[in-house]
Design a protein that fits this description.
There is one protein chain. By secondary structure, the chain is mainly α. The protein folds into 3 domains: 3-110, no CATH class; 116-145 and 230-437, Winged helix-like DNA-binding domain superfamily/Winged helix DNA-binding domain (Arc Repressor Mutant, subunit A, Orthogonal Bundle); 148-228, Arc Repressor Mutant, subunit A (Orthogonal Bundle). Helix content is 68%, strand content 4%. It has 18 helices and 7 strands. It has helices at residues 27-40, 50-60, 64-81, 88-110, 113-118, 121-143, 151-163, 168-175, 179-191, 208-228, 234-262, 275-280, 291-313, 317-328, 334-341, 345-357, 378-399, 404-436; strands at residues 12-13, 21-22, 195-196, 205-206, 332-333, 361-364, 373-376. The strands form 3 sheets. A 3-stranded antiparallel β-sheet has the order 5-7-6. Strands 1-2 form a two-stranded antiparallel sheet. Helix 3 packs antiparallel against helix 4 (88-110) and helix 11 (234-262) runs parallel beside helix 13 (291-313). The protein is globular and about 75 Å long. The termini are far apart. InterPro entries: HTH_MarR-typ (IPR000835), WH-like_DNA-bd_sf (IPR036388), WH_DNA-bd_sf (IPR036390). Keywords: DNA-binding, Transcription, Transcription regulation. Residues 136-237, 308-407 form the HTH marR-type domain. This is MarR family transcriptional regulator.
């Protein structure tokens, strides 16, 4: 076995005939040894031995099982592309990345709040956006087989079905979308005779046709919701909704702050609103489906982000997102960038080209928009640092009310939703391929 990664002398404490016990800091050595054993042996060995598993569990707690499975899956798969006799360096370097990822997750659980907060911006901003992007794509494929409605029209239909008659201002607050967009959606639904109202300012309610369609779509939504909440208990779900309500109030405060700055206000930091203001603007989230409150949270957070990034950098939200991804670990390959953005090639290309033309991004390699590698220019790097710092500050403010344990549970539940959303989208894409065949 390659001894370059053997644990340093003195890490193991002899415990006599029962074998060595391992300190909490040696879980990396144990997982590396486990991965190398599987990678080098043609026959898979049994599960990691009890002594090692116990040591890893003491160090990583609830992360231990996932950590062991991750390195085992990597080692077994690596035999297909990285034979032990020819590519030990490649195997080792990729294993290092996995172990660093596990370490980052462990630090987020064990380290003080300040360190934990510094690791959260991409979870809250980038990953929330990407999860909702996957959910939206799968929803378009699923609901279009019943009756095509754009996402906002469906959300209004579900909201009126669950909450009863509402005026447009209440609808706008509940979904986190500005009144102009809500008005256009209401107009479409009125024209389709799915909603009705007695006069222009009267509350909107579903017509009989709207109720019938709402019930059919609700059955589909319930099935999709069950898929997205697999492995999430009722108690866990209830706590998740409570956390979202807290975060939503903070997201609205951020949005109020950015609007004040645009309008010439002097405040430079977001602040908690007065209790009276909170009560007056309280948004009641839809707890019937897990995605609805995440969409509302994302809408308010994105609206404040759009104003913040425009104010600080002159970039749109998506331009700031693209530049941040390029600056994360440059240079980045085109295929990796598109995958990280979760957008189609055309939209990503237009944005990257615009950043290149503005002198914020440079490229190297073969000509053509879908080739080469991209990295920030000197000017672009300055904006990357501004974007990342703004992201850290915004996410720190957003998450501040959640105690560390509550925050960890919220992010754990969110990660389950993310995994379920990926599986759901894969299924809907497969159905779409069958329909086209």
């Amino acid at each position: 076995m390659d001894t370059r990664h053997a644990p340093p002398e003195g890490n193991f404490v002899n415990s006599g005939l029962d074998g060595p016990t391992v300190g909490a800091t040696d879980w990396r050595s144990l997982l590396r040894r486990r991965a190398e054993t599987l990678w080098r042996n043609t026959v898979e060995t049994a599960a990691v031995d009890d002594v090692c598993l116990s040591a890893v569990t003491r160090a990583l707690g609830p992360l231990a099982d996932d950590a062991v499975k991750a390195v085992e899956a990597y080692a077994i798969g690596a035999r297909q592309w990285s034979p032990p006799e020819s590519t030990p360096a490649r195997f080792s370097s990729r294993l290092d990345l996995i172990l660093k990822g596990i370490e980052a997750s462990a630090d987020a659980r064990l380290m003080p709040v300040a360190a934990e907060e510094s690791a959260q911006p991409h979870v809250i901003q980038s990953e929330l956006w990407q999860v909702l992007h996957k959910v939206r794509e799968s929803a378009e494929l699923s609901y279009s087989r019943e009756q095509y409605l754009i996402e906002l029209d469906r959300r209004l239909l579900f909201l009126l079905q669950n909450a009863g008659a509402l005026v447009p201002a209440d609808i706008s607050s509940a979904v986190g979308v500005d009144k102009a967009q809500v008005s256009r959606s209401v107009k479409r639904l009125l024209e389709m005779r799915l909603v009705e109202r007695e006069q222009i300012r009267a509350p909107l309610r579903l017509t009989r046709d709207g109720e019938r369609l709402g019930k059919r779509l609700s059955r589909m939504a319930e099935l999709r919701n069950r898929e997205l909440t697999i492995d999430i208990s009722e108690a866990e779900l209830a706590e998740f909704f409570e956390a979202i309500e807290i975060l939503l109030d903070r997201a609205i405060a951020l949005y109020d702050q950015e609007r004040a700055l645009v309008q010439g206000g002097k405040s430079t930091e977001p602040s908690d609103r007065d209790d009276e203001d909170k009560q007056a603007e309280k948004v009641v989230i839809d707890r019937s489906r897990i995605i609805a409150p995440l969409m509302t949270l994302s809408a308010y957070f994105s609206r404040s982000g759009a104003l913040a990034f425009k104010r600080l950098t002159g970039l749109s939200t998506f331009e700031a997102f693209v530049l941040s991804e390029i600056g994360m670990n440059p240079p980045i390959e085109w295929s990796a960038l598109v995958a990280a953005l979760a957008r189609d090639h055309s939209q990503a290309a237009r944005t990257v080209n615009a950043l290149v033309e503005r002198g914020l991004v440079s490229r190297e390699g073969k000509p053509g928009r879908r080739h080469g590698r991209f990295y920030p220019s000197d000017e672009g790097q300055k904006l990357v640092e501004v974007i990342q710092e703004a992201g850290r500050q915004r996410s720190t403010f957003l998450l501040a009310p959640l105690e560390p344990a509550h925050r960890a549970r919220f992010l754990s539940t969110f990660d389950k939703v993310r995994r379920n959303a990926v599986a759901q989208l894969a299924r809907e894409r497969a159905f779409a391929e069958i329909d086209r065949a």
